[in-house]
Amino acid sequence: MMSALAATVTGVVLALFAVVGGVSAISPTPNAPAASENVVVYDAP
Amino acid sequence: MTGNRPGSWPRQVIVPVFVAVAQALVILGPAMGRGVVITHDMPWSPRPLWTPFVLGLDTPAPRAVPSDAAMVLLGKVLGPSMAQHLVLLSLLVGLALGVVALVSEMAPHVGVVGRCVAGVVAVWNPFVSERLAVGQWVVVLGLAVLPWGLRACLRVLRGKPASYAVCVAIAVAAIGGVNSMLLVSGSMLVLLGLGMAVKPSARIARGIGWALLVSAGGASAWALPALTAADGAGIIGGIDEFAPAADSPMGVVGSLLGGGGFWNAATHPEPRQHILIAACSALLMVVGVVTTVLAVPGRRAAMTGLVVVFAAVLALSVVGAARPVWTEVVNAVPGGGALRDSQKLIAVWVVLGAAGFGIFADRVASRLSSAWRGPVAALLIALPMLLSPQLVWGIGGRLEAVTVPSDIEAGLSRLEQAPPGDVGLLPWSQYRRYEWNEDRVSLTLAPRVIDRVVLFDDSLPLRSGVVPGENLRAAAVSERIAGGASAEAALLDAGVRYVAAELGTGQDVDTTFLRAQGHVVVDEPHLLVVDLGRGSETAEASGAVRAGWAVTIITLIGVLCACAVRGVRSKLPVGLIRSRP
């Protein structure tokens, strides 16, 4: 019983972080070039 | 969980090693493909050449010395692609195992779970993510060597013969140049110095002496030319731009506590915009550092002092009221420019936090009932990964190996056959978005693949403005452009023999104008080189450069020979983890 409870609690916490972090991590496109630029900016998003 | 049962040592070694290698492969996956990774400050050369830039001959303050030259040497032996794979993999594996070794030194009875947690936290954190995202592998090298260096210092403080390990750590860091040396030598000297102040001994004094000697020798290749440069090296800009910045809703201090806070907003991990993620990262590191300090009985004062010293230096660059003092430090202290990007100083915090959180995890798990132990251990190991999920598989496509187009290689080979002379580089900016590199921002490859003096714009274009470079000749070209001249015309006036234009970089070059100025030597889809038929400068090593390189090479070879004599080969990472005080 305790083992099942422990596994469930752990699973819920892991799932919460996985959803929050994972969705954020895959959303941006790294270093997407600006439409036009004369100079490449080092810290361009 | 915490027991040190006879025969249990293989698990305590094998499992962390397996975790370290596996997580490195998960992070570097696409970077391990065919070709080389070219991103931001890691324009890994597909042609291993000791060019004037690589050797630091054509700049008043060489920044890629001796790291680039060492990688060229490795590239000549293994090939550029394999060399980069080996280096990147070694950095992450070495970092994880270094923290595991530090845990082993501080708390020998920590079990497999604690060691694995420490190794995972060491790698899955914002510091590694943000620095790798901009290709600053030398900073990650400093982070990776740091736990080995701190471990060596702790052994010296405990009266053990570990001066050789102090020398080895600093010598390895010296390969990375100024940034990695600052992290490793700085931390080690502070820790040894504090230990000496608390409880003086001849052994600690010897350790400090060796650390100073190897640091000075290892730094000579870049320090001597920089300190003796007559022009440019004293100009330090960008102090405000390079100050730590908030990468989360927790502000600058909250971001730094979690291991983030790098000034470059383009590297800030998206998941850290969630307060839950950022707060948990900060809490994890704070718990880890506090545990580390408490876990070193007899050396708490020295460990606390180490954290306080680095926090105090960092505070100068973060607290607005202290900014004038910080500016004075950066400008007035020899080599102070290396402190400008001060966020890297939290490397000490990250290493101590990772080691301490491993010890904390071990103690938590050992107090739980058997029913809770497994799930909680899984949670503690997985948590750091879930706090930095962007690291998975090449940091969202930033780290991916690409093949440099064959026409560039062919063009460079033809340029090698041309008469001597320096090369002016267009587009007039040092950053590129090569089409064949999926438009990733990166430094230009040219100074690393053209074995001549290459005149390029060494200023740093930021969203907040331009940080001036250090090459006065390049600055003169930029002035002419600012005065209304075209980049092509301004470069012609600089007196170079050749003009090389990298094409397909997302920036315009007037190729028609260039072709009309002289004899076209290379005309490829990605590279145009025109010979203007003039005499021009060639690179010659100054006395300071020659002396600097000689001292650094002698130092590194000396440490290597000393290690061989002591039979350190039998104490590779696995052996170090196993060893007991």
Measured distance between first and last alpha carbons of chain A:
49 Å
Biggest sheet overview of chain A: none
Number of helices of chain B: 23
* Domains of chain B (count): 2
Structurally, how many domains make up the residues of chain A? 1
Distance between the termini of chain B: 21 Å
Strand content of chain A: under 5%
What is the count of helical runs of chain A? Answer: 1
Characterization of this structure:
Chain B: Keywords: Membrane, Transmembrane, Transmembrane helix. Chain B: The chain crosses the membrane at residues 12-32, 82-103, 110-128, 134-154, 166-196, 275-296, 303-326, 346-364, 376-396. The complex is a heterodimer of chains A (45) and B (581). Chain A has 45 residues and is mainly alpha-helical. Chain A has one domain (1-35). Chain A is 56% helix and 0% strand. Chain A is built from 1 helix and no strands. Chain B is α+β, with helices and mostly antiparallel strands and 581 residues long. Chain B has 2 domains: 61-228 and 239-397, no CATH class; 404-531, no CATH class. Chain B has helices at 9-28, 67-78, 80-106, 112-123, 126-133, 137-157, 163-175, 178-198, 202-228, 251-257, 275-294, 300-318, 323-332, 347-366, 370-387, 392-397, 406-417, 446-449, 472-482, 487-492, 511-515, 543-566, 573-578, and strands spanning 36-39, 42-43, 401-402, 423-426, 431-433, 441-443, 454-455, 460-462, 465-467, 498-502, 519-524, 527-531. In chain B, the strands form 4 sheets. A 5-stranded mixed β-sheet of chain B has the order 7-4-10-12-11. A 3-stranded antiparallel β-sheet of chain B has the order 2-1-3. The longest helix of chain B is centred in the N-terminal third of the chain and has 27 residues, at 80-106. Chain B is globular.
